[in-house]
Amino acid sequence: MTLSRRTILTGATMVAAAAASVGSAQGTANPPTQTRAPARGSPRVHTLNGHSLEWRMVDGAKEFHLIAEEIEHEFAPGCRARCWGYNGSTPGPTIEAVEGDRVRILVTNRLPEPTTVHWHGILLPNGMDGVGGLNQEHIQPGDTWAYEFTLRQHGTHMYHPHADEMTQLAFGMMGMFIIHPREPADPPVDRDYALLLHNWALHPGTYRPDPAVMTEFDLWTFNSKVFPATEPLLAAMGERVRIRVGNLSMHHHPVHLHGHRFVVTGSDGGRWPRALWRPEVTEIVGVGQTRDLEFVADNPGDWAVHCHLSHHTMNAMGHKLASPVGVKQGDLEARMREHLPGLMTMGENGMFDHNTHAGMGHVQGPENTLPMAVGDGPFGQIEMGGMFTMLKVRSRLSGNTDPGWYDSSAARAKRVNAAQPVEPTHQHEHL
Ligand SMILES: [Cu+2]
User: Fold this and answer.
1) Average pLDDT score, the chain
2) Ligand 1 centroid, distance to 194 Cα (angstroms)
């Protein structure tokens, strides 16, 4: 085993595979098959890297079936973990219904411990609220319970266990619950995306999240994926786009969109009156909150969409090392290599070099651990991870196919020959 400079950076002990090999998910039951558009004029929600839960009409109610179970989850190629989720995925499938619907949601517990489901933000009878011990007895392993209520509102909501939350949320149990309005939204949207924010304490070299961690997380995810495994958002020029963002992580996240202004049009409380809509380019989505962000895609290109906390657009890293930036390392590398073949010192001039090498796969970290920052772009390493994806706006798209990189050659920053700063003038007197 050789030490790498990533190891030096992270300070991570080379943990021998801490967990047993990750097993495959337990089977899922036959899902209902009927599905149809939720409401006239409303597009179906596109849950990035995910899907909506199918339902069938039974005794006058839309019947959904959630199966709580252990799953094998991939955050991005090179990083997997044994997580808990619903119907084979984390987050669980998005539940979509229409205001006024009667819904029945069967919940089967295939976990090794009791669970419940709380319907976060949904107005319902007290006995349907899903707080274990308060509103109901817990759902024991092997049991199936039915929740049934009529949807009296519309908006962007969520679902998650209200039983051993510390473990069950940390392991990935959550999903979106989207209620479309009975009347089409005004103005109608052409594309409706859903993103659920979460954080994971998947320590380097391990295969199961650590539920005891409260602040120092290793992975920050959009729909339980990290960049570059996060699916891009697509929009054709002129289309109105809604991004529904929910947050069931342990941190607040300022979600930032490049190239466009959006208006914040709603929250867990439903669609806001227009007088409350406000233009933003960054919107903080607090823990337990949802926000609806809407904009017209009117600026072609590949635009970054990300959390603006820079550590949230990175993958696992050490939190306790002194900063190496500006520290002259001299012949340290050569001398240490005598004892640690393959070692590379790093960080003297910043982290760019390290990110580039790591992103190209030249630096091996602990097993099952992604580089801090990766992503091949058209101009080199994007140096991102975690909560990062792209909005790809094009004059035309072919279905949901990724159109590839945008050709920005018509207007692109370029290198110029001007090493000295321009002499300051007194322009401020002549504005
Ligand atoms: Cu964040």
Assistant:
1) 86
2) 16
